[in-house]
Amino acid sequence: MKTSQPSVAESATIPDVVDVLAFARVVDLGSITAAATALRESKGTVSRRVSRLESLLGAALLRRHGRRVEPTDEGRRYREQAGRALDLLGDAAASLRSAQAEPSGVLRVTTPLGIAAPMLSRLLPAFLEKFPAVRVDVVATDAVLSFREHQVDVAFRFAQALPDSTLVAHRLFTLAPVLVASPGYLARRGRPAHPSELGDHDVLAVPVEPALRPRLTRGVEAHELRLRPRVASHDSALLRDLALAGAGITALLPHAAQGPLSTGELVAVLPDWQVDSRVSLYLLHAGGVLPPRVRAFRNHVRSAFIEGNPCPPVAAR
User: Fold this and answer.
1) Residue 28 and residue 162: Cα distance in Å, rounded?
2) Where residue 47 sits, what CATH number does that domain have?
3) Which tens digit of pLDDT belongs to each residue from 187-226?
4) 119 Cβ contact partners less than 8 Å away, ≥ 6 residues apart
């Protein structure tokens, strides 16, 4: 009995791979502008590609909030499944360009402080066993290192939205920050009962663009934070240490807050409210044809997160 094959007409429902790639870049980079820069296309072209894909699939894939965009539930699922297909296409093209040798050499990886040990201790053993000719150099820092200047192959980065870049980004998992302060600070300044009272407090925060201002939500209630931080810094370890020293209220990711909360050095502030601005951990690497060691590590990491998150929230360092 013959196996039925799809007709040419049915193949018309298969999306253009460039449209899928444009959608993936928008999701990974958090904006149409950043995706257009990475793809070297106009914003209008990228927007039309996404709209064409949504029309073909019959589903809304993105929510647009001014310049910021985020995937719908359908968009997240499609990004994950389509991403695997894009990776396969990239790997097939790379293998045809040249007969690549077995992955070897030094793989330089940078990762934020506080997750290097718990995450890489789960990821690296199987990778090193599978690729014995690869050596790994791990730089654990909260600083954003330059791929070119610091010879970085792969970077793990926490971000609410990634800046414009030609790097390829893979979202691994997303966390919601929690508001915390020391008991001493709250005893001195009082405990806020509503988000509107945060303006009377010393806030320690990561600087954000107005379009990315965080909100606090409680059920159907929502309150946008328009604060002038007493201390603004991209160094999350500094903000945490200042909060521990009683300098003010800050927002920490669960892995950084868990330890001080469990010991009572920090306490939750406005625990009934949730920070709406979620932060994701991304895996980043250069575009184009990747060296075998980088491609192998990327595939290993993505497979690990698809099979089961190897880095649940962990105690702070």
Assistant:
1) 8
2) 1.10.10.10
3) 999 999 999 999 899 999 877 655 556 788 888 888 888 7
4) 111, 156, 310, 311
Q: How far apart are CA 294 and CA 90, in angstroms?
A: 13
pTM of the model: 0.54
CA–CA distance, 22 with 32 (Å, rounded to integer): 9
β pairing state of 62-65 and 68-71: antiparallel
Same-domain pairing of 74 and 213: no
Q: Give the integer Cα–Cα distance in Å for 1 and 72.
A: 42
Q: How many helices (H) and strands (E) does the chain have?
A: 10, 15
* pLDDT at position 153 over 80: yes
My answer on whether 287 and 266 are in the same domain is no
Backbone angles phi, psi at 106, to 5 degrees: -95, 125
Tally of CB atoms within 10 A around 187: 10
Amino acid of residue 250: T
The percent of residues in the chain predicted with pLDDT above 90, rounded, is: 31
Contacts of 30 (CB under 8 A, 6+ apart): 68, 69, 70, 159, 160, 161, 162
* DSSP-derived secondary structure letter, 148: T
Phi, psi angles (nearest 5°) of residue 301: -65, -45
If you ran DSSP here, which 8-state letter would residue 31 be given? S
Give residue-wise pLDDT tens across range 64-77: 876 778 889 898 88
Task: Please tell me the distance from the alpha carbon of residue 290 to that of residue 275, in angstroms, as a whole number.
Answer: 37
Question: Residue 92: how many CB atoms within 10 A of its CB?
Answer: 10
Domain that holds residue 289: 101-163+280-307
Written as six digits, the tokens of 185 are 């600070």
- Alpha-carbon distance of 121 to 112, in angstroms, equals 14
